[in-house]
Amino acid sequence: MKLFRKIIALTAAALTLFSVCSAYASADWYDEVSGGSYSPIKGEPYVAETFCGVEARYSLTTAQYQCNELIMRFYREAYGLDVMAYMNIGLVMLTDGYEFKTPSVPKEGDIIYSPAKFRQNKSDHWAIVKDYSNGKITLFEQNVVYNGKAGTGRKLNFPSDYYYIYTPVAKAGYPAPSLNGAQPKEHSLTLSKAAITAKAGEKEYITYTVGNAQGGTYDISWKISDESVVSVDIESGKIVINPVKDGTATVTFTLSNAEKTKVYDTQTLKVTVGSGGDSSQSWLTLIMSFVNLMIRLFTMIMGMIG
To answer: Which residues in 3-79 belong to E strands, given as ranges?
Structure first.
């Protein structure tokens, strides 16, 4: 009987360890979004903010102003494009000659979509990219309500596995989509990728674009979070990534004037060297193996007792 109790206790401990570690290893949308401010919702509708002439509207008495309503109205008013954005249907371009694709780097006007499975099964959420810099997306969104207040200016990590991002593109023979009222930065730096995975000893190349650099006089510098993992150089207008050893490092690129007295823009690049495997999955596999072992042991002992 004592042996039986020990087996039960050991199995329960293993299951508890499994549940705790699983919760620790998992993540979702709520781990990726942060910051923002909240203002009392007053009036019908209450306009929390505007972007490209489009209002983010709130109401405490009607469900009219959902997050997806903003997406469809924003694209109609700011782009002149008709789209559908609904749960279970997804995102659909209705205007001939245009489609949605996944960008390597976010830009103003792109669509963020996080389904319920990434949001603790609460609900889907849609938002617009208002700005992107240094690995953070500033969201333009609707129906973000807390204690009767409207949320604005929330930040979202990029890249992330807990939402999808879409950008409108033109098909052959159609003009590129134009975002009305967008205010470009005075000087901007754009990287062709926000994250890469490479093998030690094998160089990778990414491109960059400098926008609105007056007279072409600018300087690009960088800092590496772990210089033992990777080194960086610029050759012939391309950024050269030199993987050194397995690990992860973040490279922060800074665009400044030639004298390095004024910073114009910053962008980050996440570099993973090695297999790029998810350590949380390794832990999960180990825990599952342990639980299975305890179950098999329990079954075997019960058979011996019987």
So the answer is: 33-34, 37-40, 46-51, 54-58
* Distance (Å, whole) CA 148 – CA 116: 23
- DSSP letter assigned to residue 42: -
Q: Write down the mean pLDDT value for the chain.
A: 82
DSSP string, the chain: -HHHHHHHHHHHHHHHHHHHHHHHH---HHHHEE--EEEE--SSSEEEEEETTEEEEE-SS-S---HHHHHHHHIIIII---EEEETTTEEEE-STTEEEE--SS--TT-EEEE-GGGTTTS--EEEEEEEEETTEEEEE-S--EETTEEEE--EEESS-SS-EEEEEEEPTTSPPP--TT----SSEEEES-SEEEE-TT--EEEEEEEES-GGG--EEEEEES-TTTEEEEEETTEEEEEE-SSEEEEEEEEEE-TTS-SEEEEEEEEEEESS---HHHHHHHHHHHHHHHHHHHHHHHHHHH-
Pick the CATH number of 35-170 from 3.90.1150.200, 3.90.1720.10, 3.30.310.50, 1.10.10.60: 3.90.1720.10
pTM over 0.70: no
Q: Mean per-residue pLDDT for 248-269?
A: 84
* Closest by Cα among 159, 223, 222, 170 to 196: 159
**For the domain 188-273, what is the CATH code?**
2.60.40.1080
Asked if 294 and 10 touch (Cβ cutoff 8 Å), the reply is yes
CA 98, 99, 100, 104 dihedral sign is negative
Q: What percent of the chain lies above the pLDDT cut of 90?
A: 48
